[in-house]
Amino acid sequence: MNLTLFVWRQKGPAEKGRLEQFNAKDISPEMSFLEMLDTVNEGIIKDGKEPIAFDHDCREGICGMCSQVINGVPHGPQEKTTVCQLHMRNFKDGGSIYIEPWRARAFPVIKDLIVDRSALDRIIQAGGYISVHTGGVPDANAVLVSNDDADAAMDASECIGCGACVAACPNGSAMLFTASKVTHLAMLPQGQVEAARRVCVMTEAMTQEGFGNCSNHYECQAACPKGIRVQFIAKLNREFIRAQFKGARRESPQ
Amino acid sequence: MRFLENTVGRKIVIAVTGQLMAVFAIFHLLGNYFNPYSMKFPDIGSFIWLARLAMLLSFGLHTFFGIQAELENHKARTGPYALKKSISTTFAAKTMIWSGILSGVFIIFHLLNFTFSVIDESFQDNYAVALGYTIGLSAVCLHLYHGIASFFQTMGWNSEKSLSVITMAGKGMALLLFAGFICIVVLNRV
Questions:
Q1: Do B75 and A206 touch (CB under 8 A)?
Q2: Do A5 and A19 meet the contact criterion of CB atoms below 8 Å apart?
Q3: How many angstroms separate the most distant Cα atoms in chain B?
Q4: What is the pLDDT of residues A118-136, one digit of tens each?
Q5: CATH 1.10.1060.10 domain residues, chain A
Q6: Which B residues in the span 45-84 are in contact with A, Cβ-Cβ below 8 Å?
Q7: Closest CA to B82 of A103, A211, A33
Q8: Residue B6's closest chain A neighbor by CA?
Q9: pLDDT tops 50 at residue A253
Q10: DSSP state of A188
């Protein structure tokens, strides 16, 4: 396959970026998207130029590092797929591909296609944890969890924190990410102690990091490589309302 | 006041005030077809003033928090994508700020026209006013096309299965309201 790439190049966070054109020649349809970029980069390096910088790690669709908006869709055209699991057979030979970084104020570009997603870590740090007893290992079924609740918590915990929801959101909101973390812990008995406080401080942290407000576009759900559903945002909203009646404890629990 | 500083808290205020106005619009339409003033309500006078107060408050809060959210959302985005595809959002959802502003202007015009009689021209005998009503009603119903169903998501009043049904029903209700109101303009005009 031969393709024309339009790739976002940006030297640093303060630099102005622009799209640069590359020709990707002799690309196998069985290559992953990242392998295609590796091939293009080898050519760029041979020409003595600066290769395209992009994030990647596990290359098996579970780490959440790859972060590219491909032809206007985060993680590209295939549903529920990360960039590393996207294969070139999904593209037309001779076609052109636009590759851009996640664009959000809370995700400053570090270089080219690499953005700083530590804002998501700080949302987790604000309240994405539970308190447990230290000491001996508890008995396996000492705390009972219904199968439905366990399934819902498991579904919510599938979020890999890649930030595609933010990249897709017309408001640059991280509500799907935050909702998946809140729901994951709110579904389980172990998460109840901090539940009221958690939903308040995590949504506040989201705003402080410069993410926008959710206005129910549902673009996040469509872009999510793990199929996290907007029903979790409804769950977050219910948790928030419940927290108002419970009088969320504000102080840090330490 | 932490509630009103929180993004979800403010979203709930926007949703509740918006839905109150949407419910009013439904009764307003029913009132146009089945005149309630001719029915014998025990004390409609004080009820109307209560409703007017609720509407005024809703209008103010909805406008304030809606514009605030839009400004923040605008700031949260950096530069447009060279290429961006929308997958599931709608034209109505993307234009809420504009349909909202247009609706606000239309509602003020409508009040000056009918309630306060400051503007004397009526859509019955002025084509320009009739056109204004058509544009205004379109904006209101476009706003409701996203708004009515959105309320249920914001309140968390849905489930895995009901989300799509509620979304369809909300859109249907907005279209029904548009049909109902536009008939009044068209039938009185012809």
A1: no
A2: no
A3: 62
A4: 999 999 999 999 988 888 8
A5: 118-246
A6: 69, 72-73, 75-84
A7: A103
A8: A204
A9: no
A10: S
pLDDT in tens, A26-63: 999 999 999 999 999 999 999 999 999 999 999 999 99
Which residue bears the tokens 């054109």? A21
Give the pLDDT of residue A247. 65
pLDDT at position B32 is 86
Interface test with A, best of B1, B4, B5, B8 (most A CBs within 10 A): B8
What letter does residue A210 receive in the DSSP assignment? T
Q: What is the amino acid identity at position A100? A: E
CATH 3.10.20.30 fits A3-111, yes or no: yes
Interface test with A, best of B84, B99, B163 (most A CBs within 10 A): B84
Q: Choose the closest CB to A219 out of B83, B88, B158.
A: B88
Cα nearest neighbour of B69 on chain A: A213
Mean pLDDT, chain A, whole residue set: 95
Start-end ranges of CATH 3.10.20.30 in chain A? Answer: 3-111
pTM of the model: 0.94
Residues whose CB falls within 8 Å of the CB of residue A191, separated by 6 or more in sequence, listed in order: A130, A184, A185, A198
Q: 């705390």: which residue's tokens?
A: A143
Give chain B's length.
Answer: 190
pLDDT band at B190 (very low <50, low <70, confident <90, very high): low
DSSP B39: S
Beta bridge partners of A111: A114
For helices A175-186 and A231-246, give the axis angle rounded to 10 degrees. Answer: 60
Determine contact: A104 vs chain B, CB below 8 A.
Answer: yes
**What local confidence, expressed as pLDDT, does residue B114 receive?**
85
Q: What is the mean pLDDT of residues A73-96?
A: 97
CATH homologous superfamily for the domain A118-246: Alpha-helical ferredoxin (1.10.1060.10)
Q: Compute the distance between CA of residue A51 and CA of residue A44 in angstroms, rounded to an integer.
A: 6
